[in-house]
Amino acid sequence: MRQEKQRLRAQALARRDAMTEKARIEASLAVVDRCTDLVAVEPGSVVSGFLPIRTEIDIRPLMMALADRGARLCVPAIVEDRLRFRELLRGAPLEPQGFGTYAPAPDAAVLDPDVMLVPLAAFDRSGGRIGYGRGYYDAAIAELRDKGKAPRLIGVGFAVQEVDVVPTEPHDIPLHAIVTEREAILRDGP
């Protein structure tokens, strides 16, 4: 199963990498428009997003739109080989996290998300997700559930990252929705 996930990941990422920069920008903006209507937040709701790496979708405009609607934003930071969601404030310093991404400094508040905008390498229509192979998100979501939290999981990516079937293991947690530039795939309503 691990080899099949690696194969699907590599194929989906190759398709993503083959997109032109212009196509990625336009698709990112289309996803932002689609998600702005889909993601309901109350003032004070905690939304985790992510800062893009390599050719990943750029959801920073969406994150700022949600902040303007009163959401508290956070992004993942790798702390002792686990994800912690540090509050993201405009103008606050960021530090390198490895993998080409950044996160707020260690003195930023750690938050438990109500909604998680989840990056992905590949996805299927049933909510299956292949990440980058380290299991950080599945472990973080399981930890939140152990605390009694049930964050809404929304995968965001490009349509070219879709695969027929994501092989699943017991630790894999399905997404509630996936949003691409072409459509929103809802498993259980908005």
From TrEMBL:
Cofactor field: Mg(2+)
Catalysed reactions, semicolon-separated: (6S)-5-formyl-5,6,7,8-tetrahydrofolate + ATP = (6R)-5,10-methenyltetrahydrofolate + ADP + phosphate
InterPro entries registered for this protein in UniProt: FTHF_cligase (IPR002698), FTHF_cligase-like_sf (IPR024185), NagB/RpiA_transferase-like (IPR037171)
UniProt-recorded Gene Ontology molecular function terms: 5-formyltetrahydrofolate cyclo-ligase activity; ATP binding; metal ion binding
Enzyme class name: ligase
Binding site for ATP: K5, Q6, R7, L8, R9, R129, I130, G131, Y132, G133, R134, G135, Y136, Y137
Protein name per its UniProtKB record: 5-formyltetrahydrofolate cyclo-ligase
